[in-house]
Amino acid sequence: MQTTVADLERAIRNVPDFPKPGIQFKDITPVLADAKLFSVAIDLLTERFKPGSVDAVVGIDARGFIFAAAAAVKLQAGFIPVRKKGKLPYDTFEQDYALEYGHATVAIHTDALKPGSRVLLVDDLLATGGTSAAAVALVQKLGGVILEAGFLIELKFLNGREKLVGIPVRSLVAY
Ligand code: AMP
Predict the structure, then answer these.
(1) Which of 64, 14, 70 shows the shortest CA–CA distance to 38?
(2) Fewer CB within 10 A of the end CB, N or C, for the chain?
């Protein structure tokens, strides 16, 4: 039987009040644990691109790395991490973004991308869009051209895609 988006949706586990009260955490580990679901998720996230048509898949710390790395192998592209501040060892560019309370910072190596690189940006989940908008800013600072931002999950009611102006956004499962 063919595995579908509905199977992905069924496998994503909702964990109420994690990591704090009021948050409905979308746990993607059951998708990763199932070989077929994981591979279908990667097939869908990459289906608009032929191998060789993307230079780099940029993944966002930390669950985004899992999907982005697998997508990079499939597309015969490099994998570039956007990490939380203080984790990358070499010279970095940093980008601040607002959280509900306070702010956070993500970073990319200054030599991670050549200008003009064709980039697929990947994360597990699009919520308010702050994290991905910061990642977009870092990729663009290096001269990368984002072909698409792909997410396994989108929380539509948070309107995150409005922060990704001019970037085609793709999500597999929306709430
Ligand atoms: P945002 O910057 O608001 O779009 O948040 C996106 C980032 O936070 C992603 O890297 C997600 O992994 C994580 N995230 C936000 N909300 C949730 C949630 N409800 N369940 C799981 N992860 C989340």
Answers:
(1) 70
(2) N
Ligand 1 probe mutation, 18, 60, 131, 171, most atoms within 8 A of CB: 131
Q: Choose the catalytic residue: 9, 10, 63, 154.
A: 63
Q: Tell me which of 82, 84, 125 to substitute to probe ligand 1's pocket, judged by most ligand atoms within 8 Å of the beta carbon.
A: 125
pLDDT of residue 100: 77
Mean pLDDT, residues 118-126:
98
100 is catalytic: yes
Contact 84, 105 (CB under 8 A): yes
- Looking at residue 3, its pLDDT comes to 85
Q: Which fold has domain 49-174?
A: Rossmann fold (3.40.50)
Domain map (residue ranges) of the chain: 49-174
Q: What is the pLDDT of residue 101?
A: 81
